[in-house]
């Protein structure tokens, strides 16, 4: 297909190990993603970064990759015009909390502290990157998101949900128990906010439809982009994660790339031009 806009996840998708645009999954050097990016720009196709990173981080990355827009904190913030245009999604955040951010509300209610106490050793802050998030609580570890959602509902916080944003390498800074390894990144955030919802809003802003768009990702949270676009690509590294194969069966417009990370991303970009 010929897309007019490509929405792409960053970590584990467009960029490889340690966020490098120049390394393969096995840490070999490659120029393939850079060449595909140049082809994308030459074709006049808009590129929008869609990430769990903060607004400031994604907007800066958008400048580096000459992206036309950026969606941050797993769909919480849509931005364009170099970050000057901004729209924030509230999702199911109760109206009684007014203009307070989800993190302000969660802090006031003690929600995160309660989860960390219940799942001690299996869940912790994704430090130091969690510190600047305002819409979601950024955590890491290994838990059952559905079970955590049930706990939240029992505590009267059913408007929140825990989203899996993929695997990360274990490091010495982590204090997780062995059974929580290898760890995954989680975003605790209001229901109704997703990468797909943010893409749908952005497409409407652009006067486009899902038929004009393609998305590329690698994690469970990226599957939520599928209903908002014509074709969703999942890189091989994401498709190989435990349990992902069963989830992919339920997504009719998904295609798995042949290669992982940046090399797979390049394949998806070229197929969309």
TrEMBL record:
InterPro entries: HAD-like_sf (IPR036412), HAD_sf (IPR023214). One of its GO terms (molecular function) is magnesium ion binding. SUPFAM superfamilies: HAD-like. Coiled coil: none annotated. GO terms for cellular component: cytosol. This is Hydroxymethylpyrimidine pyrophosphatase. It comes from Geodermatophilus pulveris.
């Amino acid at each position: 297909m010929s897309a007019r806009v490509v929405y792409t996840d960053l970590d584990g998708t467009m960029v490889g190990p340690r966020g490098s645009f120049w390394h393969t999954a096995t840490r070999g050097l490659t120029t393939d993603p850079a060449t595909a990016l140049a082809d994308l720009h030459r074709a006049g196709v808009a590129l929008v970064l869609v990430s769990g990173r903060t607004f400031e981080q994604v907007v800066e990355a958008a400048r580096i990759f000459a992206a036309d827009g950026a969606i941050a904190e797993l769909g919480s913030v849509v931005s364009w015009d170099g970050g000057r245009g901004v729209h924030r999604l509230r999702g199911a955040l109760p109206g009684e909390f007014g203009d307070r951010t989800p993190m302000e509300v969660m802090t006031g209610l003690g929600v995160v502290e309660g989860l960390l106490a219940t799942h001690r050793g299996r869940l912790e802050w994704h430090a130091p990157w969690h510190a600047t998030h305002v819409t979601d609580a950024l955590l890491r570890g290994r838990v059952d998101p559905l079970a955590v959602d049930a706990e939240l509902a029992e505590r009267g916080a059913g408007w929140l949900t825990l989203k899996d944003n993929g695997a990360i390498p274990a490091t010495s800074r982590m204090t997780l128990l062995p059974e929580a390894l290898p760890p995954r990144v989680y975003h605790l955030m209001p229901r109704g906010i997703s990468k797909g919802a943010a893409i749908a809003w952005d497409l409407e802003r652009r006067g486009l439809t899902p038929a004009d768009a393609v998305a590329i990702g690698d994690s469970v949270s990226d599957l939520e982009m599928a209903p908002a676009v014509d074709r969703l690509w999942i890189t091989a590294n994401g498709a190989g994660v435990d349990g992902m194969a069963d989830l992919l069966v339920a997504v009719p417009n998904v295609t798995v790339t042949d290669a992982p990370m940046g090399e797979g991303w390049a394949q998806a970009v070229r197929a969309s031009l």
